[in-house]
Amino acid sequence: MNVARSTDPDRIGFDPGRLARIDDHFGRYVDDGRLAGWQIVVTRRGEVAHSSVHGLRDLEAGTPVEPDTIWRIYSMTKPITSVAAMMLWEEGRFELTDPISRWLPEFADVRVFDKGSALKAYTVPAVEPIRVWHLLTHTAGLTYGFAQTSVVDALYRAAGYDLGVPPGLDLAGASAGMAKLPLLFQPGTGWNYGVSTDVLGRLVEVLSGQSLADFLTTRILVPLGMTDTGFWVDQADAKRLAALYTPHPGTGRAVRADQLGAAALAPPQCLSGGGGLVSTAADYHRFTQLLLRGGELDGVRLLGPRTVRYMTRNHLPGGGDLASLQPQGFAETVLDGIGFGLGFAVVQDPVPAKVPSSVGEYYWGGLASTAFWVDPAEEITALLFTQLMPSSTYPLRSQLRQLVYAALVG
């Protein structure tokens, strides 16, 4: 299944000449070696206005990006896991205010970092339990070891939680290990990007009685026709997987990162609901269309429309933005003017972020510079796929927004 342009862009309000700027601009990233290749899809009102590929999926092999190229989507897994959880919520399996220790007892007595260093950390008891909504909004106090912005991050790395989990742990074991580490803050009092959605994936397993892979496959991926999305790429499709790259510290040119990239070629021991999936543009396009249509696509309904609207409102404490709740740290987004819902960043005010988004637009991205957004006001979805990590290397996401919204004239 490919995503080809299906309509005349000007019929749905896009200037074709202005859309052409997208390929011209991002083509320069390939021409000067900063990116190996990329794929971009833009839709409006369910019709594809722009779809393009450029460059190579594997520089060393000389193989081009093709419409069915498979990409590591890393944290773009999070919205899919969040939808899985909210499907169970719609079935009455839990309330958003429920303490997660009801099903994950290892989180019953979590502690919060108070002061000290990674060598001698002082902690205090949590005064509020971690609740399900804290996982969905990243307000639980959990973090990422690779973020390297706090003492708690260092404690994660020391325990083996860096870009992955300690060897030999499945998702249940990893979740139990995370529960032993101190929280960055009292649950519900701040925002910090971290392993919350991995723990949420474990909650999906316990509530459903299925592995996360089986739940996602049977309840989301197969019903939606997302046949190229999963936790690894089998041998038959391995040639379609794009290579993973990092920037050379001196030249900025893309340098192959096979040690990390090879992980996608075998079944993982730990199923990461926060960052483990690979996918294609066609598959993720179907996921964004499901969201845009309020939880239904081609007769398949996964969520009710009120649930999707509720998920994509700002749920941060006090209605604040990310900048007010996380003054420092790593995230797949700018912070000013941006709220967070149940699995998505949400634009509260586009002016502080300095991009011409619509209020209510929701989105997320992945560590290898992939990104998507859904704009309900303009009925737009957009997808960007490439394989350069970290995602903070170049301002690809904001530039794509500039170009897409500059092309919207009707």
UniProtKB/TrEMBL annotation:
Residues 22-399 form the Beta-lactamase-related domain. Pfam families: Beta-lactamase. It comes from the Bacteria. This is CubicO group peptidase, beta-lactamase class C family. It comes from Micromonospora matsumotoense.
